[in-house]
Amino acid sequence: MAATSPPPSATVYARNLEERIKVPQLIESLTELFSEYGTIIDVVAKTNLKAKGQAFIVFDSVESAQKAIEEVQGFELFGKEMQLAFAKTRSDATVKRQGGEEEFESHKRRRLAEKDKKKAAEAAETAKLLKRANPSAPDSSSAAARPIKATRGAGLKSSNPAGAAVIPDEYLPPNKILFVQNLPEGYDVESLTTIFGRYEGFREVRLVPGRTGIAFVEYESEAGAIAAKETTAGMPLGGDAVIKVTYQRQ
């Protein structure tokens, strides 16, 4: 079955761009080229490996984006023919412009959640490939299938190699509970509530008896946890201490 094209939107997705061109130069060239077809709100191009050779051109109207796709499709830029299409999702700039700050924050949380889920899926797929390449490694599938008992220590890494988590902490899919590590000595429930209680749906902070430097922060929904994680991860807390914030393992 043929894949369906994204519906018309104000954002043009450009790919097959020359990857060796530096991002500032690429953005400048795209802006100059596409500005002939309407008012440009934003041009987004990133440096990470997966996003190289791609860019998003955000217009103020669907009509301008449509005209640009029709007339610039196949245009040779830096020696490569551009491939253009409507973007699959609305850009941050479009949402903020049309829906206001509240809708923009909601859109951003959904986008970050999808990004985290995609990372988790990619990490799991990589783990499967490694497992096939090394069939003598312990099988963690049966352990992963067992539900984790809900205790105050839930989320801590197991000492059992067969039950060790395959997915790295940074790629765990979003859920309502955050696992906070590298906390400086003296940080208690009250001080952590001051940091994490600012986010939507905050429920509680739980310390782990007998363990220092770690805590769990629970929210009513994933949305609050996502916002808190994106804002607090890597936050310095005095001296050289930088906290690590990930989602709790399920």
Structure explained in plain terms:
The chain is of the alpha+beta class and 250 residues long. The chain has helices at residues 23-34, 62-72, 92-133, 141-145, 189-196, 222-232; strands at residues 11-15, 40-44, 54-59, 76-77, 80-81, 83-86, 177-181, 202-207, 215-219, 244-247. The chain has a 4-stranded antiparallel β-sheet with strand order 2-3-1-6, with helices on one face. Strand 8 (202-207) and strand 9 (215-219) form a beta hairpin. The radius of gyration is 22 Å and the shape is elongated. 22% of the residues are buried.
Strand content: 15-25%
What shape does the CA trace take?
Answer: elongated
Structural class determined from secondary elements: alpha+beta
Rg, Cα atoms, Å: 22 Å
Distance between the termini: 36 Å
Main pleated sheet: 4 strands, antiparallel
Helix proportion range: 25-40%
* Spatial strand order of the main sheet: 2-3-1-6
- What are the secondary-structure elements, in order, as H or E? EHEEHEEEHHEHEEHE
Counted beta strands: 10
Work out the helix count. Answer: 6
Low-confidence stretches: 139-165
Mean pLDDT equals 78
Oligomer: single chain
